[in-house]
Write a structure and sequence with these properties.
The protein folds into 2 domains: 4-89 and 167-270 and 282-350, P-loop containing nucleotide triphosphate hydrolases (Rossmann fold, 3-Layer(aba) Sandwich); 102-166, no CATH class. The protein contains 13 helices and 12 strands. It has helices at residues 46-53, 79-85, 97-100, 107-118, 123-136, 153-165, 183-200, 211-217, 235-240, 245-253, 260-264, 294-298, 342-350, and strands spanning 4-15, 18-30, 35-39, 61-69, 72-73, 90-93, 171-175, 203-208, 220-225, 228-234, 304-305, 311-312. The chain has an 8-stranded mixed beta sheet, with helices on both faces. Strands 2-1-4-5 form a 4-stranded antiparallel beta sheet. The longest helix is centred in the middle third of the chain and has 18 residues, at 183-200. The relative contact order is 0.14. Residues 13, 15, 20, 22, 40, 42-48, 58, 60, 209, 276 line the site of adenosine-5'-triphosphate. Adenosine-5'-triphosphate binds at residues 13, 15, 20, 22, 40, 42-48, 58, 60, 209, 276.
Length: 352
């Protein structure tokens, strides 16, 4: 069964009289309980994609495609349906808990609110649930009466996780949930989130620019570049044996899982990401890619099969298109371009 099926999701923003493309024709699919990491540099479209899933984008955004959640397209659903899905079906852990929490209301009030809104329970039951949730994220229940400023950054992010789990959703979208935190605290919070969703069988889309963190916490990895998906596959395989040069570069930028020193000073990627409007049909990574050849700039990119359960948008996975001697590193045998939706199919396959 599919929980989430994203088809040809495309998002642009109206800005200064122009359309700025942010997400370009992304397909992906999640089964219940799946954990998917979404990686990419700043500006690659990760947050836009996450927010688009629940139609949380600003009014300047134009969205097309389909976001089928439990079979219903959220992009065309009525507001009443959307309200019912948010929190109870799918919830979001945003970056920066301080701005997401209301500073003048107690944590208890903020935790009970979604429960009261979405479930037919009385105030006392909601309060008991909130207390349990707080304990689940490692905070004492007595802190329900405290205000957001009375917590540390890490504790506030724990509270955001408790809120996201409050209505027992089937999907949690975590958008850089630990960005502003100290490295050691980051690791603890991610571990906590991962443990809680796995215990409860909740599916997760975890967003980060740090490929090693995602490889450690999620079963599958999707890599985005300039609004497009460029690689998909099982986390351990994608991290250990990337099929796209951009993924290799990201893996090198954040080399070792749990290595605090490297995380503080990542090696960085050569060059800058393209501006959204400068991206054409060919490979957007070509200007920064050491392996780029003319065909990279002229061939329309798609996600091609790149081994069992793997997809890559690098033409070097196509033996018949790749220049001599460049296709062998991927070890792929397939050469047929994936048709629309095959990204989703491969993600499904990888979920078994
Ligand atoms: N509200 C907005 N108005 C106009 N353009 C936007 C808006 N939000 C994002 N963009 C543009 O859309 C593109 C994708 O941005 P997005 O924030 O989704 O990327 P990201 O990968 O999540 O980056 P980050 O890690 O920095 O959050 C970028 O070019 C960004 O400048």
């Amino acid at each position: 069964m599919t929980l989430l099926d994203v088809r040809d999701l495309t998002v642009s923003y109206r800005s200064g009289g122009r359309e700025v493309p942010a997400v370009r024709g992304v397909d992906l699919s999640l089964a219940p309980g799946d954990t998917l990491g979404l990686a990419g540099e700043s500006g690659s479209g990760k947050s836009t994609m996450a927010l688009a899933l629940l139609r949380l984008l600003p009014a300047t955004a134009r969205i097309s495609g389909q976001v089928l959640f439990q079979g219903e397209d959220l992009l065309t659903a009525k507001w009443s349906k959307l309200r019912a899905v948010r929190w109870a079906g799918a919830s979001v852990v945003f970056q920066g808990a301080m701005s997401a929490l209301n500073p003048v209301r107690t944590i208890g009030d903020q935790l009970t609110e979604p429960i009261l809104l979405h479930e037919k329970v009385d105030e006392r039951t909601a309060r008991q649930r909130a207390a349990r949730l707080l304990e689940d994220v490692g905070l004492p229940a007595r802190r329900l009466s405290s205000y957001p400023h009375e917590f540390s950054g890490g504790q506030r992010q724990r509270i955001m996780i408790a809120m996201a789990l409050a209505c027992r959703p089937d999907l949690v979208i975590a958008d850089e949930p630990t960005t502003a935190l100290d490295v050691m605290v980051q690791a603890q919070i991610l571990q906590l989130l991962t443990d809680l969703v796995r215990e409860r069988g909740i599916a997760v889309v975890m967003i980060s620019h740090d490929l090693s963190v995602l490889a450690q916490t999620c079963d599958r990895l999707a890599v985005m570049y300039a609004g497009r998906m460029v690689e998909l596959g099982a986390s351990t395989e994608v991290f250990a044996d990337p099929k796209h040069p951009y993924t290799s570069a990201l893996a090198r930028a954040f080399p070792t899982i749990g290595d605090a020193a490297s995380r503080r000073a990542p090696a960085g990627l050569p060059g800058d990401p393209p501006t959204p409007s400068s991206v054409g049909e060919g490979c957007a990574f070509a200007p920064r890619c050491a392996h780029a050849v003319d065909a990279c700039r002229s061939t329309a990119t798609e996600l091609w099969p790149a081994g069992p359960g793997r997809l890559s948008a690098c033409i070097r996975v196509l033996p018949d298109l790749a220049p001599a001697g460049t296709a062998d590193r991927t070890g792929t045998t397939g050469s047929a371009p994936a048709t629309s939706g095959s990204g989703a199919a491969a993600m499904e396959g990888g979920a078994s």
